[in-house]
Each structure stands twice: as C-alpha cells, then as structure tokens.
C-alpha cells in the first residue's frame, strides 16, 4: 500500500482508535505497514504526521506504543535530513540527537561517553543549527546526558550476553534510550531522572532476562516504548512480587495504625455467603489480646465481628 493510501486509511480510523480499541487490528496493521517506510522529507507537510502524533495517545497501549515509535524514528530521521541540508527541522521539533556507535572490539572497552559526537560547533557552518542541538549548547548538559546514557549502559551490561549482542549495539541502545527519555521529558528534569532510575533498575535486574530479550528481539520494544511503558509491563515477576508485598505492607501498616476500613474478600458473610466485605480492626481490650475485626458485608449489609 502506498503511503498516501495508508495515510487515508489511518485518517479514517484515527478518531475511533482515540476512543476505543474496537478497530485495533486494522489500525495495528496500517501502522505496521507505515513503519516499513523510512522518513522522507516530503512527509513533513502530509497529514500522516498529524495522524501519528494523535495516535501516540490512542486508547490502546499497543497502538500508542507503535505510533510513538514510528513518530520518534521519523523525527530522528527528519533531524538527519535537516542536518545534511543544513536547514532547520520542522517547527516544534526538538529532542534527541542521533548517536554514533562505538567501534570497540572488546566488550566494555569503550563506555558511551567516549562515543557521542558533539553537535557541530557554530563556527563550522553559517547555517542555523537543528533545534535538537540546543540541548548541547552547554558542555555541562552534554556531559550530564552522557553520564545518564552511561548509567543505562552500566545497568544493561551487568547481565549482558556479550556473545549475542555486540558492544556497539549496547552503546547505541544506551544513547537511543537516553534520547527517548529526553524526547519524553525535559532533559535532566526530575521526571527524566526518576524515569531513568526506574528503567535502570529493571534493565539491570538479574531476574529480568525477559526484558533484555525483548529489547534485542522484539521490534515493539523500542526506546520510545520503554520510556512510556507501565511499570507492570517492564518489571520481572520477582520485582512485581516485591512491589506488591511492599504495597500490602504499607497498606496494612496504615490500616493498623488508623483502623481504616479495607475492602477484602478474606471474609465470608454468614448471612448471604458472598465474600465482598469491608472491615476494620481495633485493639478493643488489652494490648496482648488479639485485635477485634469489625466486618460489614457489602452485598447485604450484614455486620459482625470476629
Ligand atoms: Zn452478606
């Protein structure tokens, strides 16, 4: 299908995809077809860009992830084209630069910090610099962002399978992920840093072989996807379990401290036999006796204590 045809079809299905996932299959198919096109400067004035921009916040997570990924790839490509032509990129464009990859022969011989080519200095050319280069105006910001890319690299390399994935790919991915972070959040802002820390935890998690496999093998698991994915979708099972336990512990502590009502299915209502109840516990007698639990059935309203 031509890009014009894809554009027309996407336009037809876009509004529905924003509200529901009822046309998910067809939209995913269209987006997958679009993703096979590499960005061409003629797209800059075409509605396809607008469709992709909207679909980044589509109702369905997979649709929005794929739209984000295509959009961000195109954006990087647009920047490359703009740089080559020494002209400004499309208005409103900003964010990541295009990383260069290492030529290291041995693993970990080169950290990402050595491999990022700085944006061209103003004296190199009279033409205006691309907007993305604005982030690199300060050597300090550039150095800080390099450090973030390096931290990502360090996390990932902790359990890295060097036989399968080259150091070059690891370095490039670290820069791409940092670039995606900088696209999504203001570079070096608190949001950017806290997202980076969360990602680094998952990427370096010894039990999260699954996530690392997805990064290298799953075409949907792009840097753009990773920076916006839900925590649940990235964490290893043991990490999820840990978080759940921590949450439960906090809830229990809160509840014991304040006698707050909790909803639960731990109790069976003796009157209606349903298990949807609200309960609270109180220390009614002396401290060495067990707490009394006051239970209210949410189905029939029956109250009792245990
Ligand atoms: Zn009941």
TrEMBL record:
Q: Under the cellular component aspect of Gene Ontology, which terms does the record hold?
A: nucleus
Molecular function as annotated in GO:
nucleic acid binding; zinc ion binding
The reply on keyword Nucleus is yes
> At the top level of its lineage, which domain of life is listed?
Eukaryota
Record domain TFIIS-type: where? 265-305
Q: Which UniProt keywords apply?
A: Metal-binding, Nucleus, Zinc, Zinc-finger
Q: What are the GO BP annotations of this UniProt entry? A: DNA-templated transcription
Record InterPro entries = TF_IIS-typ, TFIIS/LEDGF_dom_sf, TFIIS_cen_dom, TFIIS_cen_dom_sf, Znf_TFIIS
The protein's matches in Pfam families, at most eight in alphabetical order, are given as: TFIIS_M, Zn_ribbon_TFIIS
- Protein name listed in UniProt: TFIIS-type domain-containing protein
Q: Which organism is it from?
A: Fonticula alba (Slime mold)
């Amino acid at each position: 299908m031509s890009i014009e045809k894809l554009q027309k079809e996407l336009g037809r299905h876009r509004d529905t995809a924003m509200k529901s996932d009822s046309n998910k299959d067809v939209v995913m198919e269209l987006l997958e077809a679009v993703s096979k096109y590499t960005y061409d400067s003629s797209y800059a004035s075409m509605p396809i860009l607008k469709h992709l921009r909207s679909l980044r916040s589509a109702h369905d997570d997979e649709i929005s992830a794929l739209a984000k990924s295509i959009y961000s790839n195109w954006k990087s490509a647009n920047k490359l084209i703009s740089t080559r032509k020494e002209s400004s990129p499309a208005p409103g464009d900003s964010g990541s630069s295009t990383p260069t990859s290492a030529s290291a022969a041995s693993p970990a011989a080169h950290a990402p910090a050595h491999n990022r080519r700085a944006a061209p200095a103003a004296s190199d050319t009279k033409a205006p610099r691309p907007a993305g280069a604005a982030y690199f105006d300060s050597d300090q910001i550039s150095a800080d962002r390099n450090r973030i890319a390096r931290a990502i690299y360090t996390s990932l390399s902790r359990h890295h399978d060097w036989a399968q994935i080259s150091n070059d790919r690891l370095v490039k991915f670290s820069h791409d992920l940092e670039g995606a972070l900088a696209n999504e959040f203001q570079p070096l802002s608190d949001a950017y840093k806290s997202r980076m820390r969360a990602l680094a935890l998952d990427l370096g998690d010894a039990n999260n072989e699954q996530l690392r496999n997805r990064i290298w093998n799953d075409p949907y698991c792009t840097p753009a996807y990773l920076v916006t994915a839900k925590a649940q979708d990235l964490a290893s099972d043991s990490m999820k379990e840990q978080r759940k336990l921590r949450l439960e512990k906090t809830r229990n502590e809160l509840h014991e401290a304040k006698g707050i009502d909790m909803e639960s299915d731990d109790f069976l209502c003796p009157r209606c036999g349903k298990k949807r109840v609200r309960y609270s516990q109180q220390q009614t007698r002396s401290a060495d006796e067990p707490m009394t639990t006051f239970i209210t059935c949410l189905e029939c309203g029956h109250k009792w204590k245990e």
